């Protein structure tokens, strides 16, 4: 796969859809193309976050540790980004990500990502929009879950 | 050292000075004769005095012993009748005698000068050694106020003129004085009034000039002082360069340096002006006298009161007069000058509380272990500013106990550790071992039985191994056996060292004290080194350094063969584990996608500049191969595409943007150049492109790796053509290029590549996650299986740590310090926040393994560890808590926890 194909794929990631192609090309160039075989771990819960991954092809499981072992909370599909929270706010990885099929990713290093955000405000705004969107979804889900819980306990 | 330079010189060189004075005295008669001869030549054979008839003869070399009258009336005894010579024969004989005197005088001078030179150099050696010896004996607080570079310039440059002077200190005035006196005496003998005249002029010269030169000395002193301060400032700038960068104070520093340089300039310029004025005056006075001689002497000769021969002799004697006088004046100036320098150096190196030489005396026996407690009694200490570091500390450190020292911020814990290591001296109280004051104990005891490591880790430039075993170099243990010229060389070294008051310990001996650490010799030592490196988990770092190093075959002749075996074992292993995709191996018949285009074309490592990436496009043979394989244009076109992509990606970024680190084949400055170049070559056919432009584009292609840059420029056809060109390149390689490249050979060891590259024999794939780490793990396992890891470790131990250890990270430096503190096998091991830079999470494990290593083989040293993390205190037998320099709590961990005092508070915060 060549740089220009990667740019095409990046454009389909909602986070980057509003960013100019030239900037995306720079992002792709400064990122590493990394392949994972099925079962290989991208990162572990609790690790310090040093990079975000954009899935180009294949799929991966997002797993969270619990008392009864790892619980799968979501599946990553192509064109999705994972690990961006840890690099934005310097917290440890909140989940483990493991490939469940041969996986092709673009590994965006933390300092590069932050540098791009600082340099191109439109990208920062776009990211904020997506994160706010995600937050409102999560909040909605939370309140739904709470009311569900209340209904059940009553 | 004596305060007075003359006394200092006389004390060490009196015998030689007297000898050389004697020699000078001996040389005086010939000197006098050489002055007298011209008169005889001119008056005798030339003027015809005594040769009144053409066949008149005179006697030459008639030696008569004519005793003075008061010894009794004895007829003169003729010892030698002499030769009877004609006028011409006499001229030749006298001239020959003159020549002989010149030679004898010259030989005297030669001997005297060499002797003086040697004397001076020996004294310089003695003085320099004494200065360094003093630095080694300075009390610790002195080092807080002296600048390293200033001390260095003093020892190196400022005492240098002293060396030149010492040889002349007594000899020069005596020699010159006698010379001048002889010349003056001679002139007086010829004509009393001319002699008085000469003496008068010399007197003026001797009084005025030195007075004027006083100012020169003062300026010289200022120059020396400002230059030394400049050296100090330059040293500070280099040491504090990071502070300058992070605070944007570079221009402040520039201003400071510029103003200093301005001051130095002014002083130097004044110096020059005055110096040349004095020179002018001096020359004038020297030249006026001959004028007087010509005028007055000529007048006297005309009147017949002086014969021509005398006049010639007076003038030629006078020629010899100003230069000794001038030299005498110079000598006097030099004397004042070095006196001042010496006084300054003396002052700088004369500090109170100098450590007694007996404390550092060389003890060539292993020290007896310290088996009694170290008792700290009422110990108080302050820092330079007078702030209290420790206040009335009283405690015992018993042999074999592990003590954690914990403190509040500014609690004085570090000072306590330094005090036990003798780095902080008490104001009150003392530390004693078995009743003896710690400070009075020989360093041979404390330095061998007490180990110390601090967080601020300084290393000497040298290999890791050198730095590790440095702590064991107490005395020359095994002397090398010398034979033949080496033996006489050694003898010379010893005798010269003794003459200059230097110690004659042999640096080439084996200084490593194996016995103290229970090792029998170098073999045991390497096992001990491995243990301590493992304990501080530094082994992996050393192993990696070894892997990345290229091998010195002279030092390790056996390794290359084994590495080729390891290469094959790695292949098998990767195949077995299904990981062969991690490494793209070199295969003569295949294109290696993970390697650069140049690597693929050459299929070898360039040795020297001819075929390096920068010069490859200009190499005639290489280019001829490209043309032959029709790759010329294709590679050029690729270069154009790479340039186009790079310019498009990077043209909007500022030149210092960190992304440029990703751009290996081009620098930020080259972007505009390539932008212009692209426009210039746009749409032009290949034939119309200049050779220089072609080269610049091809240079880009040579560094291109498809999976890394992903511009999509290499297809299968292209790769195949490159492989074919490679074959042609190898087949016709001319002899003059055979040394410029080391071809990849699956069966051979590549000397120019690192050990890792040799084991891999290929390139690690860019696309596999953590490929580098995984490969390194597998390589390690393979080398372990083949028993090669130790060899690689040895190569790693030869890594040069750089100035002050800067080629290692802070953590690595700290680990190295702890490792060598352990290596010493002391009875008390003091670790002063020694691993403070290590990540919190791994600290606990490190503390455990270090304590374990200290107690290995049934040893039980006391470990005193100043911790920055109070949580780790639970790993110790005893915890001492300091608050504002006072020991507030002391006991075991559980006991202190239950007291809910300062320690519990520290843990909770």
Describe the protein in words.
The complex is a heterodimer of chains A (154) and B (909). Chain A has 154 residues and is α+β, with helices and mostly antiparallel strands. Chain A has a single domain, classed as Jelly Rolls, CATH 2.60.120. Chain A is 44% helix and 28% strand. In chain A, strands 1-8-3-6 form a 4-stranded antiparallel beta sheet. Chain A has a 4-stranded antiparallel beta sheet with strand order 2-7-4-5, with no helix packed on it. Chain A starts with a helix and ends with a helix. The model of chain A has no long low-confidence stretch (mean pLDDT 84). With 909 residues, chain B is α+β, with helices and mostly antiparallel strands. Among the domains of chain B are: 5-349, Up-down Bundle (ABC transporter transmembrane region fold); 550-586 and 744-797, no CATH class; 606-743, no CATH class. In chain B, the strands form 7 sheets. Chain B has a 6-stranded mixed beta sheet, sandwiched between helices. In chain B, a hairpin with a 2-residue loop joins strand 19 and strand 20 (886-891). The interface between A and B is medium-sized, with 22 and 19 residues.
Structural class of chain B: alpha+beta
Unreliable runs of chain B, pLDDT <50, ≥5 residues?
A: none
The percent of residues in helical segments of chain B reads 55-70%
Fraction of residues in helix of chain A: 40-55%
Radius of gyration of chain B: 40 Å
* The CATH topology of the domain at 5-349 in chain B: ABC transporter transmembrane region fold
Strand content of chain B: 5-15%
Q: Using the CA coordinates, give the radius of gyration of chain A.
A: 17 Å
Total of domains of chain A: 1
Largest sheet of chain A: 4 strands, antiparallel
**CATH architecture tag of the domain at 5-349 in chain B:** Up-down Bundle
Largest interface: A-B, 22 and 19 residues
Low-confidence stretches of chain A: none
Layout of SSEs?
The complex is a heterodimer of chains A (about 150) and B (about 900).
Chain A: H1 3-11, H2 21-30, E1 32-36, E2 41-43, E3 51-57, E4 60-66, E5 69-76, E6 81-82, H3 84-89, E7 96-99, E8 103-109, H4 110-119, H5 121-153
Antiparallel strand pairs in A: 1-8, 2-7, 3-6, 3-8, 4-5, 4-7
Helix pairs in contact in A: 1-2, 4-5
Chain B: H1 5-46, E1 58-60, E2 63-65, E3 77-80, E4 83-85, H2 87-137, H3 148-158, H4 160-166, H5 171-190, H6 192-239, H7 241-246, H8 250-303, H9 308-319, H10 322-349, E5 374-382, E6 388-397, E7 402-407, H11 413-420, E8 428-433, E9 436-437, H12 443-449, E10 450-454, H13 464-469, E11 473-478, H14 484-499, E12 510-512, H15 522-535, H16 539-548, H17 559-576, E13 583-585, H18 597-602, E14 604-606, H19 613-616, H20 620-628, H21 632-650, H22 670-681, H23 691-702, H24 706-709, H25 716-731, H26 735-738, E15 741-743, H27 755-760, E16 762-764, H28 771-785, H29 789-797, H30 810-823, E17 828-832, H31 840-854, E18 862-866, E19 878-883, E20 886-891, H32 893-899, H33 902-908
Parallel strand pairs in B: 7-18, 7-19, 10-17, 17-18
Antiparallel strand pairs in B: 1-4, 2-3, 5-6, 5-8, 8-9, 11-12, 13-16, 14-15, 19-20
Helix pairs in contact in B: 1-2, 1-5, 1-9, 2-4, 3-6, 5-6, 5-9, 5-10, 6-8, 6-10, 8-9, 15-30, 16-29, 17-28, 21-22, 21-23
């Amino acid at each position: 796969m060549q740089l220009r194909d990667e740019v095409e794929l990046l454009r389909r990631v909602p986070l980057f859809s509003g960013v100019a192609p030239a900037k995306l090309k720079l992002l792709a160039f400064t990122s590493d193309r990394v392949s994972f075989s099925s079962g290989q771990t991208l990162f572990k819960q609790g690790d310090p976050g040093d990079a975000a991954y954009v899935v180009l092809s294949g799929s991966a499981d997002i797993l969270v540790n619990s008392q009864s072992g790892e619980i799968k909370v979501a599946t990553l599909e192509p064109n999705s980004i994972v690990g961006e929270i840890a690099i934005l706010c310097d917290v440890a990885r909140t989940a483990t990500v493991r490939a469940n099929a041969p996986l092709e990713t673009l590994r965006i290093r933390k300092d590069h990502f932050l540098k791009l955000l600082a340099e191109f405000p439109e990208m920062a705004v776009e990211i904020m929009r997506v994160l706010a969107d995600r937050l409102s979804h999560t909040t909605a889900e939370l309140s739904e879950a709470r009311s569900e819980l209340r209904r059940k306990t009553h | 050292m004596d305060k007075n330079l003359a006394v200092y010189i006389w004390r060490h060189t009196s015998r030689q000075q007297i000898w050389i004075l004697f020699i000078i005295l001996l040389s005086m008669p010939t000197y006098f004769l050489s002055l007298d001869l011209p008169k005889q030549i001119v008056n005798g054979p030339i003027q015809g005095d005594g040769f009144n008839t053409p066949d008149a003869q005179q006697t030459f070399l008639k030696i008569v012993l004519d005793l003075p009258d008061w010894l009794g009336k004895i007829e003169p005894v003729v010892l030698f009748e002499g030769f009877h010579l004609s006028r011409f024969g006499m001229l030749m004989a006298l001239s020959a005698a003159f020549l002989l005197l010149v030679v004898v005088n010259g030989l005297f001078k030669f001997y005297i000068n060499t002797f003086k030179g040697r004397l001076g150099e020996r004294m310089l050696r003695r003085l320099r050694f004494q200065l360094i010896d003093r630095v080694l004996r300075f009390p610790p607080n002195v080092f807080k106020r002296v600048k390293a570079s200033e001390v260095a310039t003093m020892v190196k440059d400022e005492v240098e003129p002293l060396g030149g002077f010492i040889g002349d200190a007594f000899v020069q005035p005596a020699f010159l004085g006698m010379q001048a006196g002889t010349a003056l005496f001679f002139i007086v003998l010829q004509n009393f009034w001319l002699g008085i005249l000469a003496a008068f002029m010399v007197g003026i010269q001797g009084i005025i000039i030195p007075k004027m030169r006083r100012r020169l000395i003062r300026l010289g002193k200022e120059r020396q002082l400002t230059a030394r301060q400049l050296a100090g400032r330059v040293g500070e700038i280099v040491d504090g360069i990071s502070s300058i960068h992070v605070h944007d104070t570079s221009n402040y520093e520039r201003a400071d340096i510029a103003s200093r340089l301005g001051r130095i300039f002014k002083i130097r310029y004044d110096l020059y002006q005055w110096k040349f004025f004095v020179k002018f005056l001096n020359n004038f006075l020297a030249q006026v006298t001959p004028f007087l001689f010509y005028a007055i002497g000529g007048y006297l000769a005309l009147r017949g009161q002086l014969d021509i021969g005398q006049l010639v002799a007076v003038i030629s004697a006078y020629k010899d007069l100003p230069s000794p006088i001038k030299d005498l004046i110079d000598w006097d100036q030099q004397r004042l000058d070095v006196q001042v320098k010496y006084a300054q150096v003396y002052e700088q190196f004369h500090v109170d509380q100098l450590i007694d030489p007996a404390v550092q005396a060389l003890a060539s026996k292993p020290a007896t272990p310290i088996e009694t407690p170290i008792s700290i009694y009422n110990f108080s200490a302050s820092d330079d500013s007078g702030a209290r570091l420790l206040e009335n500390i009283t405690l015992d450190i018993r042999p074999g106990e592990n003590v954690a020292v914990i403190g509040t911020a500014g609690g004085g814990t570090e000072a306590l550790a330094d005090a036990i290591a003798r780095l902080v001296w008490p104001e009150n109280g003392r530390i004693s071992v078995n009743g003896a004051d710690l400070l009075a104990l020989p360093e041979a005891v404390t330095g061998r039985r007490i180990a110390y490591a601090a967080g601020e880790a300084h290393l000497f430039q040298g290999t890791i191994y050198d730095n590790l075993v440095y702590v064991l170099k107490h005395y020359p243990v095994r002397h090398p056996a010398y034979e033949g010229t080496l033996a006489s060389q050694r003898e010379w070294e010893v005798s010269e060292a003794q003459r200059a008051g230097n110690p004659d310990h042999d640096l080439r001996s084996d200084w490593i004290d194996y016995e103290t650490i229970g090792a029998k010799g170098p073999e045991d030592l390497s096992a001990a080194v491995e243990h301590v490196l493992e304990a501080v988990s530094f082994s992996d770092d050393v192993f990696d350094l070894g892997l990345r190093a290229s091998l010195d075959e002279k030092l390790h002749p056996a390794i290359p063969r084994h590495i080729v075996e390891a290469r094959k074992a790695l292949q098998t292993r990767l195949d077995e584990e299904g990981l062969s995709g991690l490494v793209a191996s070199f295969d003569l018949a295949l294109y290696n996608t993970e390697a650069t285009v140049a690597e693929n074309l050459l299929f070898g490592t360039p040795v020297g500049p001819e075929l390096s990436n920068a010069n490859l496009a200009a190499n005639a043979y290489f280019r001829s191969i490209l043309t032959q394989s029709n790759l010329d244009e294709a590679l050029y076109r690729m270069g154009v595409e790479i340039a186009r992509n790079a310019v498009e990606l990077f043209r909007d970024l500022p030149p210092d943007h960190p992304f440029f680190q990703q751009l290996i084949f081009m620098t930020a400055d080259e972007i505009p150049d390539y932008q212009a170049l692209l426009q210039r070559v746009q749409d032009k056919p290949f034939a119309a492109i200049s050779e220089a432009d072609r080269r610049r584009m091809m240079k880009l292609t040579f560094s291109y790796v498809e999976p890394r840059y992903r511009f999509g420029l290499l297809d299968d056809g292209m790769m195949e053509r490159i492989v074919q060109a490679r074959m042609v390149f190898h087949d016709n390689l001319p002899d003059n290029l055979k040394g410029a490249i080391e071809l990849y050979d699956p069966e051979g060891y590549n000397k120019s590549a690192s050990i890792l590259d040799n084991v891999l024999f290929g390139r690690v794939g860019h696309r596999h996650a953590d490929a580098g780490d995984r490969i390194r793990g597998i390589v390690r396992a393979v080398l372990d299986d083949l028993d090669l890891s130790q060899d690689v470790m040895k190569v790693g131990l030869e890594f040069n740590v750089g100035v002050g250890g800067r080629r290692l990270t802070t953590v690595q430096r700290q680990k190295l310090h702890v490792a060598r503190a352990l290596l010493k096998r002391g009875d008390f091991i003091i670790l002063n926040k020694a691993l403070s830079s290590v990540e919190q999470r791994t600290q606990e494990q490190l503390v455990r393994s270090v304590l374990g290593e200290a107690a290995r083989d049934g040893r039980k040293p006391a470990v005193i560890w100043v911790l920055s993390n109070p949580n780790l205190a639970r790993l110790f037998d005893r915890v001492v808590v300091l608050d504002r320099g006072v020991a507030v709590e002391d006991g075991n961990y559980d006991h202190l926890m239950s007291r809910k005092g300062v320690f519990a508070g520290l843990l909770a915060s």
